[in-house]
Amino acid sequence: MLTRTTPEDDDIVVREERRGGTLVYVLHTAPGADQYEFRRREEGIAQAVALAKREHVRAWLTDEGYDFVLLDDFRETNRSNSTLWRQLAR
Q: Which long-range contacts (CB under 8 A, 24 or more apart) does 60-65 make?
């Protein structure tokens, strides 16, 4: 069985992009419109993971090229504790 490597509906996505020459991190719920903008990467990632945990969905990080990295998956009931999002926030 193949594992999907892109967000599904209701997953939380934080996207790194340049706006007006400034690097920002934009958070939204897939497939919706942008909801929050952060100046610091760790803020965007922390908020995405916290929201995904609360909503029991997955949290993703992407860039303007739309290469997705799974930060954490809160859909599973028996999952190991992932520290990927903490490593990426550094």
A: 60/6, 60/7, 60/11, 60/12, 60/13, 60/14, 60/30, 61/13, 61/14, 61/15, 61/16, 61/85, 61/88, 62/13, 62/14, 62/15, 62/16, 63/15, 63/16, 63/17, 64/15, 64/16, 64/17, 64/18
